[in-house]
Write a structure and sequence with these properties.
Distance between the termini: 66 Å
Largest sheet: 6 strands, parallel
Shape: elongated
Order of helices and strands: HHHHEHHEHEHEEHEHEHEHEHEHEE
Structural class: alpha/beta
Helix content: 40-55%
Number of strands: 12
Radius of gyration: 25 Å
Strand order of the largest sheet: 2-1-3-4-5-11
């Protein structure tokens, strides 16, 4: 049998409230006393009310959509972070509209305009392309993850500690030469802490080291070509030395590992590898890769918690905006696997 649709009038009759009061419950619940909210909530259960999402969006203008801008889905870190963000739906009830910007400013600006047209309530931005000052100018809650964040809220790993952890593990593995491979980063980017942690650990312990900074590209072919050239240079310059290589992420660490196995038939005793992020590829690699775990589920949960707090505040009759951006730091966890012996 077809179930009768429960209307505002039915709820009003059941609770003895007016239809305008019922409408306020759905669109501006804080305008009602708590006891009235509880009474209406119990009535909804008793009547078997099923919310009409489209009607609510039209009435309130609140879509419960969050926009997400990521650089790409090639890097395992970004795909796993997206997976963890999507899983927060069960907790917060927000849906996600996702765009991959591929580090193109004009493209990302067009994506943001598209998101605004959908009346999103907030954004989570992992892409570093658009400055935080510009993102703050859109006038809605924005949370950054692992990118420049001066003017917007953010959740980041303690990258400096991660750099120290990775380099110290290679030191304990008995390496003769320590190498960190990363992009050419400015000091205002959180990931620069990995470089600083590496350099401070090497210099503080008198370790022979080399910092290699270059743009690795955004696909496997570019990564493979550039890492192949690096391996050739290391073999030419340091053939007998035990080389400890700290990669800036697990995707590149896995490409490096595969190239070494193809060249030598196995991971040579003259190489030790540590990655960064603890995305699934680090454990699933042909030889499980030691890595600095960024606690991706924790970062995603904290980012959504911070964004939700701001979005819910904006729905109040008298919202109190943040006086300054909130920046949260998540402690990394060192994960020892087979590539460090």
């Amino acid at each position: 049998m077809k179930t009768k649709k429960v209307t505002y009038a039915d709820i009003a009759a059941y609770t003895n409230f007016s239809k305008s009061t019922i409408s306020r419950y759905f669109n501006n619940p804080d305008s009602l006393p708590v006891e009235n909210q509880d009474k209406i909530a119990k009535a909804l259960d008793a009547l078997g009310y099923k919310e009409n999402k489209i009607a609510r969006i039209l009435a309130s203008g609140k879509t419960e959509f969050v926009g997400v801008i990521i650089p790409n889905l090639y890097m395992h870190y970004y795909s796993e972070m997206l997976n963890q963000l999507l899983s927060t739906y069960e907790t917060y009830g927000y849906k996600f509209l996702v765009f991959a910007g591929n580090e193109q400013k004009d493209t990302e600006r067009n994506y943001i305009e598209e998101l605004l047209a959908y009346n999103i309530e907030g954004m989570i931005v992992l892409s570093p392309t658009i400055p935080s000052r510009e993102l703050a100018g859109y006038g809605l809650p924005v949370v950054a993850i692992e990118r420049e964040d001066e003017y917007i809220c953010s959740v980041n790993t303690d990258n400096y500690m991660g750099g120290v952890q990775a380099t110290s593990l290679l030191h304990k593995s008995g390496c003769d030469l320590f190498i960190h491979i990363n992009a050419p980063l400015s000091e205002g980017v959180p990931a620069y802490g990995r470089i600083r942690g590496f350099l401070d650990t090497c210099e503080g312990n008198g370790l022979a080291h080399e910092l290699i900074t270059l743009d690795m590209g955004n696909n496997f072919q570019e990564n493979r070509e550039k890492l192949f050239q690096i391996i050739e240079g290391l073999e030419r310059n340091y053939p007998e030395q035990k080389k400890g290589i700290f990669m800036s992420n697990d995707t590149h660490a896995n490409v490096l590992l595969n190239l070494l196995i193809r060249k030598f038939g196995a991971l040579p005793g003259t190489y030790r590898i540590v990655g960064f992020d603890n995305s699934p590829i680090s454990e699933e690699a042909v030889i499980p890769i030691s890595t600095v775990g960024q606690q991706i589920p924790v970062i995603a949960a904290e980012a959504m918690k911070l964004l939700s707090m701001q979005m819910e505040e904006r729905k109040k009759r008298r919202p109190v905006p943040l006086e300054a951006p909130v920046h949260k730091i998540v402690t990394p966890v060192l994960v020892r696997r087979e590539t460090t012996g």
